[in-house]
Records
---
Amino acid sequence: MKKLKIGIAGLGTVGRGTFKILTQKTSLLAKRSGAEIEVVAVSARDKSRDRGIQIPSQITWYEDAVKLASDANVEVVVELIGGADGVAYNLVKAALENKKHVVTANKALIAKHGFDLAKIAEKNNVALCFEASVAGGIPALKGIREGLAANKISKICGILNGTCNFIITKMKNENRSFDDVLKEAQALGYAEADPSFDVDGIDAAHKLAVISALAFGIKPNFASIYKEGITKITIDDLKFAEELGYNIRLLGIANETAEGKLEQRVHPCLISSEVPIGNVSGVLGAVLVNTDALGPVFFTGAGAGEMQTASAVVADLVDIAANRARNPWGIATDDMVEGQFVDISHHVGEYYLRFKAKDKDGVLSSITTILAQNGIGFEKVLQKLGSDKTANIILITHDVSESKVMESVDKISKMDYTAEAPVVIRVEAF
Ligand code: HSE
């Protein structure tokens, strides 16, 4: 049987999972791909570290990952190091230039260099596969590129960061603090090396840049994405939202506007508790795609984790072995265009507003008057008295523009009854 010889760079969580699947399922993968996928080389920093896997002595070990790119025995480089630049970029670029196929789980790399790298792959007639870079093991990219090839896509909406979803869910369900749950996510191997990438929405934005480029035929554009993380979400807001009939989730959203431009944004959202994506909990991720022929399509599954993300890496290897991996962006790079984006200040939608105010007469009326002066009406209101002579006044507005909301909130924040900075969370309609 034909062989496909691979070199794995990076033996962290995903590298270890990939190695396990390839060595434990050799025969199944051979039947599915028509080739025996064999690991012939690996690279990781510390050879002596116990990773819970046995690396046979005939496998070549490289301290310098970039050397995998010039190993004549390696046909596919699997890059699982991470980072937009540095070693990961040097390795992937050199591998493609040396006419080796590349599989990567590196969302930061693909969000930043995915277009240029695809050009090199195209020129050299080799594959560049990155299914594992978005939503862990969920085959959302394949689903969009292949399964939805007949459709025009108008909106992508995803729970793209497993760590954030894990934190938000556990904070509410177990009444636990943000820091406490973050530590658990780190121990389980979900969090990025620098967890601020998770909780500040950067990781989700990398993934959104990739999936949006694929869905809309544009060059990935990370810089244009509005990014807001989950660090300001409190247990109180999670509970007040629930009382009003919503869940809070960090979503990555790319949608066409009426003017034919694109909105790309990552931020916490209130989602009606009736809507499936708002009920995706824990480390699960999800991608909802609105299409013209098929209608809405919903993918869900593990968004992070060792075997889960490795599942997507190995699926890419099977595609390469079966000789069916081409056009990573679904279209030729010459056909990919620069996106035309709109700024978040033009966003229109409903908003959750929470004002913590001194408990005295006339506060609710003052708040609603200021909102009304900017044309903002509201459909739900909740008032919660605190034990410290303050009250939380929570409103869900009707559709309104972001700039009007921010203008009103700024005015209210300066009133003498305001006890804390107001909270603003967008409500996403489905
Ligand atoms: N830190 C990422 C997450 C890992 O939590 O989703 C998977 O990309």
Note: The mean pLDDT is 96.
---
Amino acid sequence: MKKDILNVELGSYSYPILFGAGLLHQAGELLLAHFSFKRAVIITDNNVAKYYLEPLQSALQNVGIKVDHFVIAAGEGSKSFANYQDLCEKILELQPDRNTAIIALGGGVVGDLAGFVASTLLRGLPFVQIPTTLLAQVDSSVGGKVAINARAGKNLVGAFYQPKIVLMDLSTLATLAHAELLSGYGEVVKYGLLGDADFYQRLLELGGVFEIAKNTELTQQIIKHCCTMKAEIVAVDEWEQGRRALLNLGHTFAHAMEKMADYKLLHGQAVALGCLMAMRLSELLGYDISQAQITALQNHFKAINMPIKIGDFGASINWDIEELVNCCYGDKKASNGGLNFVVLHAIGDAALQNGVAPELVKQVFNEFL
Ligand code: NAD
Ligand code: GLY
């Protein structure tokens, strides 16, 4: 399959995203063609390390790069102050210089944590993203948001720190669990809903992520399309002063559910349900979203086993609607004490809605219980 490239245009911080199958094995040449470095520290997690650490190490060593690595435990719990400190101290023991590259090899957890380490060590070391989940390939590895979690909530301590290059090896998706593929697909659908009605319609017709995954060329096209949409938004609003907030469609609902579930939900699956909720909220607010459109997406999700109700996440969580609404106030997008949501004026046309009445949010949560 053809290698492909997309540039994220950010002036002197612009960077390429490379797409293709098997890129990991060419990582040495591909990275060196883009920037010069002699040492690298790979940060990965224990699942990803099993499959991809050795190939990446070899690819880098083959072009003369000295490589160290650290393996963190897989899972959201690793985006912690403790891991951040531990990684910083351990990397400092290696006496890095300004050109030592920090390479994130993994999903969004590794990317966010490694990126935050890179952004602060020696006031910023060159950072490389090698995303290995669908979610990380369509979203988290692009745009420079890096973060760890705090007691008060997810991603509350972080930075905007762009990578030097993003290397997407589509072959890595072959070892990804179905549930994780589904999670990434939640973010894919989000892109269609927020900004591209034709793309959204095509997704509904393609029959879902597992159908798409059977065709590597189609998978690459879809991942590139999502990255193109994200790159365009990031290029005009890197610091999320306006348009970038639209990428958070479904996220205020999702973050509330994730917080109440103690971050045990898969992020993209929560976003998928959050998007359904955002559609319903938009309908209640009188925008051009119909019940038929909501049902169509529900049916699409149902056919691929994506949660379409809060209860689908499992009976062990004690969902409290008042608490869910309270969590929406705690979200980063809540300002001036009000409830702010990304809504849809129509499919493919997202907008920020400030001061949403809590009763409406409560009604939506209740309807999706
Ligand atoms: P993740 O990083 O936890 O990865 C999911 C699971 O898949 C993990 O168990 C991991 O070990 C495993 N895995 C990863 N790649 C694999 C592969 N190729 N084969 C087999 N197993 C593999 O989760 P995620 O969904 O990638 O990312 C979620 C995180 O991303 C959250 O912390 C979220 O806050 C963050 N996020 C950040 C941004 C951003 O812009 N920075 C955007 C969206 C989400
Ligand atoms: N994932 C949302 C953003 O990068 O802005």
Note: The longest helix spans residues 216-236.
